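Input:
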Amino acid sequence: MTSRAVQYRRFGGPEVLEIVEREDPAPGEGQVRLAVRAAPVNPLDWKLRSGAMASADAPPEPRVPGFDVAGVVEAVGDGVVDLAVGDEVLGKSVGGAYAEKALAPVRALTRKPAEVAWEVAAALPTGVATADRVLGLLGLGAGDHTGTTLVVDGAAGAVGMITVQLAVARGVTVIGTASEAHQDDVRALGAMPVVYGEGLADRVRAVAPQGVDRAVDTAGQGSLRDLVALTGAPEKVLTIADYAGAQELGVTFSSGGDPDAETRALADAVALLADGRLRAPAVVTYPLEEAGKAQDDNQHRRVAGKLVLVP
Ligand SMILES: NC(=O)c1ccc[n+]([C@@H]2O[C@H](COP(=O)([O-])OP(=O)(O)OC[C@H]3O[C@@H](n4cnc5c(N)ncnc54)[C@H](OP(=O)(O)O)[C@@H]3O)[C@@H](O)[C@H]2O)c1
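Output:
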């Protein structure tokens, strides 16, 4: 059987993305093949497509973008016992998710409750995995952290909004930065909103006279110096999006994580979402044919929320 996928054979702008008809991928040991119901655009997708993170001129073979996925199991590989054909799941794919069919290791998937919409489910994996990891690295893992004050820079973003909510649920006092347009959204998550940009440190001090214990930059827009000034030390600050700034200031840059911990965090978050105790990002859907437009809209911040491809 064949099905459609988005791929690129060279690095560049959104125009390098093309729709192809290809053989359905065959699941390997410990993998399943999913009929993809939804696959979000993450900033990493267009950063990889641009070639900015590669040393060669082109990927070694055609590459299908996308990591996060939600879909229905339609074939299982050897050794798969935990999932069966027809199961509805979300998590991380391998080999690309911008497609009608995608592969995923069973250990990277969790079940999707019926009441969670496909596009909402697909919007979660990277945000949840990253938020959970970042809080752990800042010493704010599971448990009660009442009395701790955290700044989340980029609190209205996909990673930021989950980070805020997990921290608030752990008793943390959170100050979240966002544009003017998203101040109310950040407040609704349980954080004190502050507008980002020039003068950030003074605005944060005004709402946090008790001082700031930890800070995380989830936006990569040049706030690290302010965050170090607010916390008093680079070791109290983490970034997931400003590699150069981290190098310059001695701040930890965090990427990647333990896949099993990510799946556990995702399962916990899905349970909270199904109970109405976690707010998911607002979602805007695009057909597979508009993958390039969706990436471009995300990169240039033309459309707020999580942009999700629905094949
Ligand atoms: N290292 C890792 O493991 C990892 C994992 C996931 C993501 N990331 C990276 O983290 C970044 C965010 O990802 P995402 O999916 O959360 O993106 P996103 O949903 O597009 O959110 C980005 C947020 O940044 C905010 N922002 C824009 N300019 C800002 C500024 N000057 N100061 C502070 N915030 C600003 C925006 O707020 P407004 O909408 O209010 O303007 C927006 O909500 C990307 O660079 C991504 O590649 C890294």
